Amino acid sequence: MALLGKFSLKRPSIEGIRHAFSLLGLAGPCRLGAVDHKHALIVPKLESDFLRLRSRFSWSIAKSPMRIFRWSINFDPSEESPLAPVWVNYLNLRHQLFDKAALFRISKVFGVPLKIDKATTDFSRPSVA
Hints:
The protein has 129 residues and is α+β, with helices and mostly antiparallel strands. It folds into 2 domains: 3-70; 87-129, no CATH class. It is 24% helix and 21% strand. A 5-stranded antiparallel sheet has the order 2-3-1-5-4. The protein is elongated and about 50 Å long. Residues 2-79 form the DUF4283 domain. This is DUF4283 domain-containing protein.
């Protein structure tokens, strides 16, 4: 489980990125390394941290926007990734379907489900999942 952080402009120093990640409150350690002048490799130890980082499309580190992509063996820094996370809302979904397993089965039509938001988990906004 590894991620790539792609910076729109110039990648901040690895020390700066490490500092920013230390402030995120991740549940476990995360290895970070420079790939090139625009990319950083991010390897969280825990799946929950991987999903948290992956579920948010962009982050800002040292005032530099960073987009997150899943790392693959075919990574080429000169190519743009064809994959991107999307947020899906289900309006007026029956309350029986607010279960994580049900939502993940429904969402597989769009790709690999990553995360369910807190409002859906808590059933605090029953008009939308």
